[in-house]
TrEMBL record, chains A, B, C, D:
One Pfam family of this chain: GFO_IDH_MocA
Domain GFO/IDH/MocA-like oxidoreductase: 149-282
Gene3D superfamilies: Dihydrodipicolinate Reductase, domain 2, NAD(P)-binding Rossmann-like Domain
Gfo/Idh/MocA-like oxidoreductase N-terminal domain boundaries: 9-141
InterPro entries: Gfo/Idh/MocA-like_OxRdtase_N, Gfo/Idh/MocA_oxidoreduct, GFO_IDH_MocA-like_dom, NAD(P)-bd_dom_sf
Name of the protein in question: Putative dehydrogenase
Coiled coil location: none
MF term (GO), any: nucleotide binding
Length: 388, 388, 388, 388
């Protein structure tokens, strides 16, 4: 450990003002470790609310902007030593693309919420921009920040459960089980069920994309073709609130993906089961510190966060000893820690340690957009299999 | 309670000799309550083994037969007061039809294991025979004998969880995760993976049929169309060992059914989740005495077997106080108790109490055969939806 | 396997008539495997009810007695080939001693419910009689019949968890949380809270004795001294309904034993935790097929009934494959199977296989009586430690 | 919400430098909500390490002190608008008293880790000082910061489970199951097993005190007398590593408290069961978002953090929607949030909202010291009951 510790990274936030839910989570995640600080923002699409939100958060007046264009212009005018290190985009989905594209094009590092953008073309454009600029671009698929998801990834990738044959992933919630949108009382419900702001998909876009990313992260499998049934089961809903997919992966593994927001009583029931020739892994987001390993030839094991026998990647993602629960915010913080490690490496002119710079990237976001697009296409098709 | 208790019912068993697994379970289930006794049998397709098995079980020589034809002929010759009350058929699947049809045609009550028969035509013939003869015909979909499955049925049918929107049923096992058949060491694996004896389907026939029946029993929903992906994922296997289906039910509910025998490390993981507009129910066979109820508007509840607030049907299916675990054999015994109640009612010239005569019937078995047939058809189809 | 299978063992039951709870459980347990049959009885202390109960169960009139003395006299008159092989005593506690002593003295094998008798003197007398006669005497500490309890015993005894340091056993129920006795509506509550019929202890005698036996069975540890706090927490109750003990074992291990019947909402919450220098074991009766092993140096393991890696003793105590729940009746049946194996060995003039003749004996019952006596003495003492 | 948000509170930390465990947790907890900032410190008893640690954390040189005396002197010299709002003391136990006393005496608000001090006399002195100065003094019994502990408190205090009859609290860990102290490799183990630094008790002081506080917080019961067995079960250990207590509460309830650090394989197993005449509550720290309620007359309920039907106190202690796991740090942060609310109220010249200023106080800390003292006295006594 050195006596001259690295300075805190500085960020600006776009979106996440008063009444928003996820922006505050991002801020808490970044605050947790005392390594990242908020210095600027354009916290709402409404200029008045944007500035009021910025004042709540203690932003200096000259860095508290009414819209993201002003934020970007201002940052570009500032000297390097004062400028933000990255921007965090936590707006509703339809705003992701213009903001992300503009900041990336201007050479800023970016963190953007998921699903990344609305269309495959936007995704491709963003990937191209990031490649051209060589910047850092993280996507907050926050569930992959859980230590035991990283442990699962290590166990699958290293061959511990053999060749993967079957994957079942579910993401079930109940909060959209009745027609809560449009009443003005539920901002989340309003925009998430509105195609103009949410995109072509509802539940599949919001939570199905997390499920897709979880499978891809843990298994590395690539979808070859899929068969989707999407439904808007609550009368009057404009986007799907329930989806089920059959998956075929390259190499022959099969899968099922379920994403539903009409499962009354369920909270945030994201769960994954991966069966290989040598064993099965099970993980459940609501008990994130446990990873169940069922070997074909021995007793069930429960690996827990904080244990000395976990892989290095899981260990690094953990802050507390075993038995001291960590949760959602820590997982989120791990995604940001990965981004921060990558940015710091660039600031210091070195290549980041891959174990440290462990975060979902723009390509993961683009694959997620592709997944949504292919799912919607399949749902409309009379043929069983829609190729990837 | 009367001072002249009813005599024990007498049964013959076809199949279930030495080395067989499920026959012994049927016998234990029937022995449990001391109300049913084994008096005759043709316990194997091999006459020598049949008779040796009968001697193991204490059968009298003149009722211990080398084949089922001899058993049937002998029973028909006996006076009514000595004759069996019913036959229990626990052979491999391909033998079900001729035996069941012959005994039913001869006017005997029958209990037959599932899947009932190989083809829709056989199923229709059997339904017709039973209807013509007016006899009792039970099918041992044993999982519906669990008290908490009956509680779930009552809660769904009475509207407690509102209109059903989504059903997810899984039946996962790991015992066929490697190529164990054909070695001679695993009789179960041998016949269950052999199309000649098992029928057109493997996992879908063996355990998928239980899953289908569980959904039908609990929800009463009727499948409108289905979309299946079946795979023989273990190299060299002749029948499917992994299947996943999307389901659409009449009335608009959606469903997913998974049946897989290659989930390494999983034991007998049958689980059901039914989400309605007012709440969700979850049941897991490996913890059969618990039924989780997640109301939309209140805390999660866990109903347990033996509690005074359960429905009458669940109470009747229970033998011990709460907290004293009951299991698979008791559930099996409940199916037989239902059959026995129906037979006793006929012996006494009355209509059975529906709460007592609660068991899966030949029509349930026929619907299960239909399910297998439609699933296999869908798996071969390039179209997404195969109508029921 | 031989072609001349052993005949069924014959038993008489004392107690267990109409309205009794536990007698029916014993009968189901004995019926389960088809190896033991009821042939005689004196099923109630009321002669009329005794005979009516016998008729319910199909007893022949000449073996259906109004009191146990008549049963004993009749059995002694019968030729050996017709006589019972053993008697099963399932009366309230205060009747255990005279019946057990009389049958044992007459040379009969005996199975008796727990707690064995009321006083240490009675227990010593019974042990002496059994030793003198050389007969089989089983005590239905049924929880030790669970396969995973036997697995725990093997793991502790073989040193897998090292030297035992701490034992925590709890047995919590809620059924006596209000003053249900004396109303006539709850026969169990009536006699179990009545010192004349239940003995010097209530909860400690009824369920504390199971807890003591579970610890002794699994660990083999001997109590050196104990410190008890017993309370009758429900106003008006005549015996303890809640007890907690500190235990010191020979060799230095420490323990806590809790037995309480006023834990509202709890069902039959018997649980054991044994910590040794190398690992900890946890078992919970309400999920009896799971044994949790927490090694000091590796991930938590859950061993499940039916797995091929269990010890021989656990395997023999199992009837179904893993994942097919077994329960209370099977555990009970295992105690009887152990007794039966011992009786059969004697019938055949050989020493029983210890793995087969695995059941709690009269000495275990006597130690249980000692435990109750010492606990009651400690509860009255002002000194902390009461020696064993 | 106002447009002029309150400024962040400023704090200094004493202890918690490089290599310390709990100091970092305190800092993360305070950072989480962006309302409290570290501005000064004396982060180690070693001046060099103190200053290096302060630099790691970005402290300005003039507020980064080599010892706490210098910190205190410096703060007293600063103008009010720059001075710290409170000090957070996270040193080993033996340092708590002088630091806390000095800062309290100087009129500073204080947060101090538990157990508060070594002796009853110290505790009384501290209580007197705080009373005299009228300052805020929080003790980080962090487990009471969990939302579901607050929900349990509300349910017990409001009479929902009736009159409390039995309390069982356990706090089990395994990290001291071998003789890890003295090797230099485990700083925690070193000081916690050293009487000079840890105090008169080991496990009872470190974790038993949490258990005592949990019971007192949830139930409000007062211990009348207790009976303790303490052991140093690891050879060579100087303080207890395993303790078990029988408790009698004023009013007649009984209890058991277990605190052990030699339970191999257990992580941080703090669990509470409270049985009243109408129901039982169970809470387990390793699944902190669940509170199990077992009513005497209805099905088991699982209340989960984030649900709309929780009490106001539980709701305020929650940051994320249900199903998005919160953990240890959030609970810790809630204690600090309570302290902060009280300090802010004083800054604004008003009485704090009791729902906001919800945190363990100096009197709770003093009661914890009393508990340790009485427990140690009981452990040495030959009499069963040691009065409080």
């Amino acid at each position: 450990m050195t006596d001259t510790p690295p300075r805190k990274l500085r960020y600006a936030m776009v979106g996440g003002g008063r009444d928003a839910f996820i922006g505050a989570v991002h801020r808490k995640a970044m605050a947790l470790d005392g390594q990242i600080e908020l210095v600027a923002g354009a916290l709402s699409s409404s200029p008045g609310k944007a500035r009021a939100s910025g004042r709540d958060l203690g932003l200096a007046d000259d860095r508290n902007h009414g819209d993201w264009q002003a934020l970007l212009a201002d940052e570009l005018k500032r000297p390097k030593g004062e400028r933000i290190d990255f921007v965090s985009i936590v707006t509703p989905n339809h705003v992701h693309f213009p903001v992300a594209q503009a900041f990336a094009e201007a050479g800023f590092h970016v963190v953007c919420d998921k699903p990344l953008v609305h269309t495959r073309e936007q995704a491709d454009a963003l990937v191209a921009t990031v490649a051209k600029k060589g910047t850092v671009f993280g996507v907050t698929y926050n569930y992959t920040g859980y230590p035991m998801v990283r442990q699962a990834r290590e166990m699958v990738r290293s061959g511990l459960i053999g060749e993967v044959r079957k994957v079942v992933v579910e993401y079930n919630q109940g909060w959209l089980a009745s027609h809560v949108e449009g009443s003005g009382g539920n901002k989340q419900a309003d925009w998430r069920t509105d195609p103009a702001r949410s995109g072509a998909a509802g539940a599949i876009g919001d939570i199905g994309s997390h499920a897709e990313n979880l499978v891809a992260t843990v298994t590395g499998l690539r979808v070859e073709s899929l068969c989707a049934d999407l439904g808007a089961l609550v009368p009057g809903r404009m986007l799907d609130d329930d989806g089920s997919l059959l998956l075929r992966f390259e190499g022959g593994a099969r899968g099922v993906l379920i994403a539903s927001q009409i499962n009354t009583g369920l909270e945030n029931d994201l769960r994954l089961r991966v069966s290989g020739t040598l064993g099965t892994l099970e993980w459940h987001q609501e008990q994130p510190s446990r990873l169940v390993h069922l070997p074909h030839d021995g007793p069930l094991q429960v690996l827990t966060r904080g244990a000395p026998w976990l892989c290095e990647s899981a260990k690094r993602a953990s802050r507390l000893p075993a038995g001291h629960p960590e949760g959602f915010i820590e997982a989120f913080a791990n995604v940001y820690a990965g981004v921060a490690a990558d940015i710091r490496a660039r600031l210091e002119g070195r290549t980041a340690d891959p174990l440290a710079a462990d975060y979902p990237r723009v390509e993961d976001g683009a694959r997620g957009v592709r997944f949504i697009e292919r799912t919607v296409a399949s749902a409309k098709s009379e043929l069983k299999w829609t190729p990837w």
